[in-house]
Amino acid sequence: MRKLLFALPALFLLASCGGSSNNNAETTTEQAAAEQKGESFAIDTLTTSVDWKGAHKGGLAPRWGKIGVNLGTVSVAKDSLTGGEFLINMNSLTVDPASVTEEGKKATDLEGHLKGADFFDVAKAPTAKFVITKVEPYAATKEASLTADPNYLISGNLTLKDSTLNVTFPAKVQVTPTSVTATAKFVIDRSAWGINYKTEGSPENWMISKDVEIGLTINAKKN
Fold first, then answer.
1. Contact at 8 Å (CB) between 93 and 138?
2. How confident is the model at residue 202, as a pLDDT?
3. I need a labelling partner for 139 at 20 to 30 A (CA). Which of 6, 36, 118, 151 fits?
4. Domains present along the chain, CATH in parentheses
């Protein structure tokens, strides 16, 4: 099996400023993009999914859903990932109706709110972008990762609304001569991108948690 690491934008609300657990994506300032060389693999937008899960303070009233990817590619040379970039369609954000069980509340209402100015303001920022900056082997630690059996770390610049930060997270990647699959799950902090709705002041005043769990299921095919 060829060594490769593929990862997509963590997409959505994001990034923790240096959490102590592997569950949190490490976040730093924007970094230089990795040079793309070698063979190109295209994201299969029909089978690639980006899942998100958030909650009110204390884990109450969890909400979850998906967001789609417009397009993306990764490049591989000498059995190693050399770079890649991806566009995420923020207008495609959905809320799973199964996560909204309270009487009188609708998933479509929450979708509209998340797309509005309080959160992602998709009218002004219809896409998010992720550009790979670094790929390295994953070194296991005593703290368990949310990703099952990760074998690589991926770093990349995530642009959300008008902010760009670099995030690093574990991923499990499998490669064949014609395809790449990757899975990842980690926690991020939306306020790092200035998405501060209901997180003002000290933690006891927060209504909605800043932490969001991101799950990635990525499929890419050789061009």
1. no
2. 60
3. 36
4. 26-222 (2.40.128.110)
